[in-house]
Amino acid sequence: MSPRGWIPTKGMPGGSVDPVGAAAYRPPALRSPRNPDFVRKTVTLANGLQIGGDAFVVAAGPCAVETRELLLASAEAVAAAGAGMLRGGAFKPRTSPRSFQGLGEPGLALLTEASAATGLPIVTEVMDPRDVPVVATHASVLQIGSRNMQNFPLLREVGRQARPVLLKRGAAATIEELLAAADYILQEGNENVILCERGVRGFDPQTRYLLDLCAVPVLRQRTPLPIFVDPSHGTGDASLVAPMAKAALAAGADGLLIEVHAAPELALCDGKQALRPADFAELATELRRLAPLYGKRWSRVPREVSWRTGPSAPGSAVREGGDGNGRGLGRSSPGPFDDEVMAP
Amino acid sequence: MSPRGWIPTKGMPGGSVDPVGAAAYRPPALRSPRNPDFVRKTVTLANGLQIGGDAFVVAAGPCAVETRELLLASAEAVAAAGAGMLRGGAFKPRTSPRSFQGLGEPGLALLTEASAATGLPIVTEVMDPRDVPVVATHASVLQIGSRNMQNFPLLREVGRQARPVLLKRGAAATIEELLAAADYILQEGNENVILCERGVRGFDPQTRYLLDLCAVPVLRQRTPLPIFVDPSHGTGDASLVAPMAKAALAAGADGLLIEVHAAPELALCDGKQALRPADFAELATELRRLAPLYGKRWSRVPREVSWRTGPSAPGSAVREGGDGNGRGLGRSSPGPFDDEVMAP
Amino acid sequence: MSPRGWIPTKGMPGGSVDPVGAAAYRPPALRSPRNPDFVRKTVTLANGLQIGGDAFVVAAGPCAVETRELLLASAEAVAAAGAGMLRGGAFKPRTSPRSFQGLGEPGLALLTEASAATGLPIVTEVMDPRDVPVVATHASVLQIGSRNMQNFPLLREVGRQARPVLLKRGAAATIEELLAAADYILQEGNENVILCERGVRGFDPQTRYLLDLCAVPVLRQRTPLPIFVDPSHGTGDASLVAPMAKAALAAGADGLLIEVHAAPELALCDGKQALRPADFAELATELRRLAPLYGKRWSRVPREVSWRTGPSAPGSAVREGGDGNGRGLGRSSPGPFDDEVMAP
Amino acid sequence: MSPRGWIPTKGMPGGSVDPVGAAAYRPPALRSPRNPDFVRKTVTLANGLQIGGDAFVVAAGPCAVETRELLLASAEAVAAAGAGMLRGGAFKPRTSPRSFQGLGEPGLALLTEASAATGLPIVTEVMDPRDVPVVATHASVLQIGSRNMQNFPLLREVGRQARPVLLKRGAAATIEELLAAADYILQEGNENVILCERGVRGFDPQTRYLLDLCAVPVLRQRTPLPIFVDPSHGTGDASLVAPMAKAALAAGADGLLIEVHAAPELALCDGKQALRPADFAELATELRRLAPLYGKRWSRVPREVSWRTGPSAPGSAVREGGDGNGRGLGRSSPGPFDDEVMAP
Fold first, then answer.
1. Which of A280, C124, D286, D319 makes a 20 to 30 Å CA pair with C265?
2. Hey, is the C-beta of B202 within 8 angstroms of any chain D C-beta?
3. pLDDT tens for residues D299-337?
4. Is D64 helix (H, G, I), strand (E, B) or coil?
5. Among C161, C178, C73, C83, which residue's Cα sits nearest to residue C122?
6. C45-320 falls under which CATH superfamily?
7. pLDDT digits (tens, 9 = 90+) for B55-101
8. Chain A contact present for D187, CB below 8 A
9. What is the ipTM of this complex?
10. How buried is residue C54: exposed, middle or buried, by Cβ count under 10 Å (0-12/13-18/19+)?
């Protein structure tokens, strides 16, 4: 199946109103996974990492890139625990202009260094359409944050890049609106979109947001795109991350975005929700044990596999000998992990 | 630990304002499961069924008691699939007075008959304080519905019964408010309270309610009471029940309330969210396989164990030779189930 | 028009499912005020006070009846300021059982005394169906609180009384659900229902609830029943009551429920949102000046008109010489008010 | 008072974390209008139009610029009815990429033509930081839409322009977050910010959004900036615009944004919520009659006053002989309006 198949033509006849409506981007054949034509979309990164399908990927790392030392420490920790990607923000969307705004381009350089050191591909946020090219030279996956889910110029810009995009659901966005936002990226020709539930606004001050895990099965019925969950922002509380991460896996998620910080008490941003490396390692171990019960294989590419930096079209990405989840190469160089089912 | 220990005195000195505030019902020693004094509360029904602790219980059945035939068919189906309790409403809180309102007392009699036939204890809703005594003669667990979470005269009335109470969270209730509502029951001396998350109001019409699974780990940090989840009302859509049921288990729930109807297309109430017996059996099989991965034992009492009807103080309930999850007796009369881990 | 005309038959043929659906209580002819058959419902109390139509009524008083002295002081203050009814709770629905629960029946007796002293009819909450008869002997209007909007046995009970009912919208209730709840009362034969918007759950901790003033024009399009607004509970903050009271009038409300306390700092309940008498007097003066601009007449019955206590069917209520808004008798004994337009 | 006074220094000492928190942009002296130092901010446009203070301004026009004929017809209609500004979108943020996206720059040229024809200043949305300069050459007020309230690069860009900014509240934004977003603009040196409530996400499908009118008095207590309300987007229904517009005035708003379309049935965007010219004229007449009751003067500059196009710093704007609300010049050339109180 060409994913392009479920993306109708970009222009509208006559150039004005949509004659088909927002539902058009999901032809009937693809609306249900029970349909024989339905194929789940997989996204493959330049280093061979598979996202979607039967892969389960955990992207972990600090909320923000702060210092070289802290970033490398966090990156090594999450790599050692089995994360498949490194997350971390160089450009930070902060509620107040008086809060730490991220390091900007120097932060991107640090991420590239951490990626080289650990072999982990980078997922990092881009907020400004003018920054998209520079972020795309450093990142393997371009993240669109919750506040920018309906920043349409930005969506169009990342839609023109040869980089997968992780699109976070807005805190007040319906599922329909999330799918329509993804459509902005798809329409520009970028078919490698990963959706991410990260909590919606709720009325209970008990948690920072209300993590809508039901979005996972709903999205699975509505779109072939891979679906991630961010239990860190979705709860705002490190003590709630592990149960919600496990619940996300059970609900059918294809991966997680988890904040891990080498020293949460020093974090300039969202330290309250960051896991310590040891807690993350414990959670990762549990998730790896559980994933096969839900038909998922833990997906990562060990650091022995050289990661190709620089822009390369995701469409041309090759798996470089592995099977996309580290098994081909992993067998010959397994490192500390065995991604088979562990006895409970 | 006497659960009474965490219930302060009922009256206030002077009889007027609360000098301590709503937080008083959770003395510091019990606020965190990490505290060495913390003990999770278990509720044991008259037939020996254990709820809470390491037990995992599924209560299943139709939304409403409609006809004798449909009820018995549903009850037999859920018993055969391994449910631990039979749910079903004789008094139905319906948005409109023009909708089916339930059979009332004749419905209770049918529930008792279904209980006798299957050995399953009954959990059924009571809406009117004047009906509490009659419902208590038929039900093993008194259910307080979402709309009545803050019906304080009703809470007080069930607080005076020798019957466990399943208290559903209101659709706009905070966790604080749910705990304060439970306190109305506890204050009357009834310590056998089971809390139930069943979805809060959300803004997305995609689902009927927004199932707040994060309430499970939050409640686990705040109270020793057992915590159930109702994925049927929480989603309003049968196709979403299975993933959310599994996610609830993974999030740490002690049990589930699931709507199962022998013929959903004939249901007078909420047929859209009811599972068919075969789908429920498949889900139950999955849950039984998964429960041990989360430290839970599938809890039910096979029908060979006679179920004692009539009023009996839950406090005096005995486990009658079994270990509360059917293993003691289950071994000698296992029926079709083996509650050990199944190979994945 | 007989209001009974828009209430279909009570039972359903066959006694089971609703063949017409929740929309049935609004026959097409009444759906729009533009329809020539449409007539706005007015409710007339035993003392002649008119509610609805072109009348604008302010019910004011303390959240809870606390002491005789405080209640009488508050009652005299709101009467002097021109309130048309006295509000005050004897039975209080409190989130926690450890908070002040109201004085109960002795509180009702104090309300009756305050009513006799001021000539103001009483609107007070009833929470328990078993208390309805006793509350109805003291109250002119039975209030159903927000938490009980879907307490259906209670709705049915007040539907059988010869007393108007003020029905508050639940904090998570849609307009449809509010109308369906009102239908429970109407179905029992009580046509004198006043709806009240009092704030829904919002996500912003800035205010206690989110006052949905748009409910007023929406309800005006959907039902002929009078519509009140409670800006005190709706905001939870005395400093926001005046602007929201004025906005409610401008949005088309038929009346207000305002908390006024002789000494808010001593209040056992919700003191933060209570106006002081002087602030209420100022607001009342403003509202009386503004009401005619919105086609409303300030409605109250001066204390010279004896108020008949005891049960009397609202249907048999007479206006006793006045024109329902105090003008007939008011002319001969105007007191300090002139309910004509004041020059701006 | 220099508004700059309440904007702390832009950078943080040490360049990292905010030592004071989000509250810093409101020094204690300005937190309450009761403080003697408190002065409400007024924004004066290049044509002399005053916004804020005792002025009440209505910006009206179509949701989107569609054709020259429709735009001019709408503009003439709203000018004739007394609107103070012309609203209309050339760049439209649409949920789906398959909907009409606006005319872009040609739309801006049409707005400039409509402005020249009517004398009305233009308020129009800018979505892309790269478009800010071109939009600023056409618009008198730069609008930041709800979806972009936390598009921080865009906020910074408009903060660097010599043009007032109308900042709409996000559908899930708290008041705190709205103020912090405004701070991004203020920090760049642009002190001419107008806040706009336009509805937040609610759970009731009855209206498109839930218009939070209480945001008006809350904001008045928190900030000296002028506050507008958009009852068109806030309700999504033309039949609800008039009552909510009047309620907004009563709640203390400084102005309104109202969608008016010469032919709503032909609108490519949001026709359901657009008023017809005749309905707008009726509403405008009512609002002009009511405004003085709330201490407001209807503010507009008649077309006889030449409107200076092209970039000009708002700070250097002159009132050109009028008193900012059209009275100085209006007296000599009043047009059809008399902005004094009309008899009710």
1. C124
2. yes
3. 999 765 444 444 343 333 333 333 333 333 333 333 344
4. strand
5. C83
6. Aldolase class I (3.20.20.70)
7. 999 999 999 999 999 999 999 999 999 999 999 999 999 999 999 99
8. yes
9. 0.84
10. middle
